[in-house]
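Could you help me review a protein record that somebody else here produced? This is what I was given.
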Amino acid sequence: MEASSDSESIEFSTELQSQTQTILSSNDNSPMETLFSHFFNTNNNYSSQQHSHSLTFFQCCKKHHPDLLFIKLFFLLRCSPTATTRANAARVILFLKPSHLWPKLKPMAQAHLKAHLIQYLKEETTLHVIRLASLVTAETVSAIYNSNNRHQQQWPEVFSFILSSLASKDDRFLEVALLILSALPKRCRLMLSDHNRSLHGYLLTTLCSTNPDVKTASFSTVVSLVCLFYDPSMFHELLRAMMVGVFALLHGYECSYFRKAFKELINLVSQEPSMLKPYMSDMVLDVLQIAESSGLSKGTHCLAFELVMEMAGMKECESVLVKLDYNVTVRVFMVLMNMLMCVEEDKKRDSEEVKGEESEVDVYKFGMKCLNQLCVTLGGSKVVPVAHHLLQICMDSPEWKMRHAGITMLAVIAKQFSDEMVFSENFLSEVVTKVLKSFEDSHVQVRLAAFNFMETPSNFVQVAHILYHHRLVHAFAIAIDNGHDDKVKEQAASAMLFFLKNTLPESLTLYKNTDTLMTKLLSLLQGKESAKQRSLALSAFNIVSQQCHEIGHRQYANYLPILLEACNDKNSEIKEEAIRGIRICAQFGTPQFKPFVNRILSELSILIQAPNARNAKEYDIAVSALGRICEFHRDSIDGSRVTFSLLDKDLLGAGNQNLLKIIEVFLEHIGRSCSMPSVRQFSSHASKEQKSQKMLLYLTGLVFAMVGSTYAAVPLYRRFCQATGYGGTVQRRETVEEKIARHDKDKTLTSREIVVQFNADIADGMPWKFIPTQREVKVKPGESALAFYTAENKSSTPITGVSTYNVTPMKAAVYFNKIQCFCFEEQRLLPGEKIDMPVRENGKSEVADTIHNFRKEKK
């Protein structure tokens, strides 16, 4: 505890000030003893109130009667017959800070206290009290030699007492002197520089003491006084004695002594890495000797390895660790593998986990932290060969925990050194072989780790997907069909989904048993699987259907009834994937889709009747699905099932000025096969008055006809924008026949270059990184250009995004054709996943002379 820094600003009542003075001046010590018991007892609410009252009392004393308070506390420390009262008095002095109280004393009182404090240190026999008194002495020395009080009396007697105590053979005096030295501030330590030779000899003696308290106190003293021992020979002797002392404490005394001493050794590495650099290789070997000992607890192993981690985190030590012998590095990583074996099973901590005082140590978590840190420090050229060597040892082990540790190690290293792993000879093929074997491991947690590894967002896993897709598809097909528990099947389905999203369509098309995989996915959807499994199966089926149309066509007849049923599922993820599947089937499954059109329209109508915050995503996907149905199945639409939807006011324009253009687009989109003349043809054969009347009637009827098709809002809006350039949207791509006819007509292509600049914006709150891979390209009118956008999910959850686009200046949009683009398509990225998406554009040859730059913006 520390005294409140605000105590000086607190105002205390006159009554309390009088009460505190009475108690401090009284010869009756019982009120102070009562205050001590209240101050150090906070077991319940009532005790907390008592603690608060006693704290207020001490703060009032410190502000208004600091001299009386210090004298009273010192009197109790020296003269109280009970050890508890003496210890509590020392604790309160430390809490109130002697550096705050000492300057408030009169010189006579200071001299009196200095003399009596040294005498008290010689007389006190209770160990825990004298240890507290040693800290009080050290802080008092600090207050006396404060740089702001140089003209005050000095205290040479205390240094004489310390040196004489170190020269004695009394363990009590030795420990007191060591504790005072270890707690001294730096400016006081430097005052002992003239005695460094004597102190060096004393410390060598105490480090070899048979008393564990003295030996442990020596460690903290060496760390505190290391500034006095910069001479290499002196430091070498002290460090050697410390290492010998550590092993003596480890094997001959309680583990608590070793922990205290070893923590001081870690502090020494932190404070003086340059001095320790010549010894670090040997210190690593000493750490390994402790960490590899099977007779020690896991907590002791972790503490020993903290020394290596302290080195790994310091730049001065990196070169030492990198230059470690290969066999030593293997031993270091093998220690980490043993830590990673401390995994939980059935929600219970393994019996090897440390207990009692060490139960707070999470060995597995600590091992993961060390593995990550060492990988960063050592680099891929050092780590990958070691990992390759350990792969065989871990994955061929009969113990499931070691196999699990091996896969965990691969996942960590693959995230940091994917390229080195890929180019390491035979490493990739061996990893794939071992991981695929682990898909069928006898232990559930090894299988989970293997499937989880195949979802690692790394180049290594992506290369494995590409080069070994045939083996992976086969393995996933077996995995989702095996009788594993639900958690394993979910992880297997998730890994398969990750593979399908990142693999090439040809990888599935070339695999002869992909139909078998699709059949197994259908069986998952029809069975009594968990909601998570069904959602993953729907996602996987949708991806395959979208990437490999031929494979999807063969399954749509069985898939569509499942989708219709899933549209009514209570689980929102299943419902969303089902609607997304309907949208895909509407676009690519024309023959099989027609019999289900009216039923699907009914389901979608229900889904979009009452949009709200909870079903906003379902609503958006449903509207998009309706647009696909109207675009690809307009001949099969039952008009009575299509509901009215308001037209976009921005689309209509002020005074409905864009209505004529809208109808033109509607005619092109829906009325291509109709024999009715277009609006332009109709208006060219009538008188001005007749045209107005007939146009009004014609448009009225046409608008009513079109209102019935407003389910097609998404594709119609897109078609309108493509036809008009509205909103900076590029026009639709010409057919080959149209392009040939146009070129035959004008026979002219300009050689002028146009700069196409690319930009990207992200919606507020969306944790994606979305940027153009290149800022601009140069094309000639009539030529096409290929560009890429890069998207990366920076969050910890899968996120689906949809991009829109526009072209500036607005007048340039009509001259700009989009040949290939990911726009208006959902892109689902897993946590950390990064993809490149292509955009192929074409500028018309008749682009206006005033236009020199296109600006392509995506959101």
The chain has a mean pLDDT of 79. The chain is about 60% helix and 5% strand.
